[in-house]
Amino acid sequence: MRGIILTAAVVPAVTAVFLKAGRWQMHADRHHITVTPRPCRCCTRCRGAGGFWTNGPFPEMEACDCWSDRRDLRIPLRRGPVADPWPDEPPI
C-alpha cells in the first residue's frame, strides 16, 4: 500500500520536472494526451518568443529552430465500452 501511495506522489512530480526541463507543454483531455514543444527562453535568435520577423517589403513571422523542428507527441487514451442507446430493441 505504501508503494502505491509513494508512486502516486512521485510520478506527477517527475513528470512536471521533465516537462519544465525539456521545454515541453502537456495538454490532457478525455480523448488523448498531447505533448508539444515550447520555445527556449535562452535562445539567442528568438529570445524565447518562438520566432522572429523577416525583413523585406512584406515581413512575415518565421518560426525559430529552437522549437519548430521538434514534433508533437500525441497519446490516444483507451476508449471505454460503448453503451447501446436502445438496449430493449432487437437487432435488425
Explain what the structure shows:
There is one protein chain. This protein has 92 residues and is an alpha+beta fold. It has one domain (2-76). It has two helices and five strands, in the order H-E-E-E-E-H-E. The chain has helices spanning 2-21, 65-68, and strands at residues 24-28, 32-37, 51-53, 61-63, 73-76. A hairpin with a 3-residue loop joins strand 1 and strand 2 (32-37). The N and C termini lie far apart (50 Å).
Return residue spans where pLDDT drops below 50 for at least 5 consecutive residues: 4-8
Give the integer mean of the pLDDT values.
75
In terms of DSSP E residues, the strand content is 15-25%
Our count of domains comes out at 1
Shape: elongated
Give the SSE map.
Layout: H1 2-21, E1 24-28, E2 32-37, E3 51-53, E4 61-63, H2 65-68, E5 73-76
Antiparallel strand pairs: 1-2, 2-5, 3-4
Structure at a glance:
This protein is α+β, with helices and mostly antiparallel strands and 92 residues long. The chain contains two helices and five strands.
Considering the chains and any ligands shown, give keywords for the structure.
elongated, alpha+beta, 2 helices, two-stranded antiparallel sheet
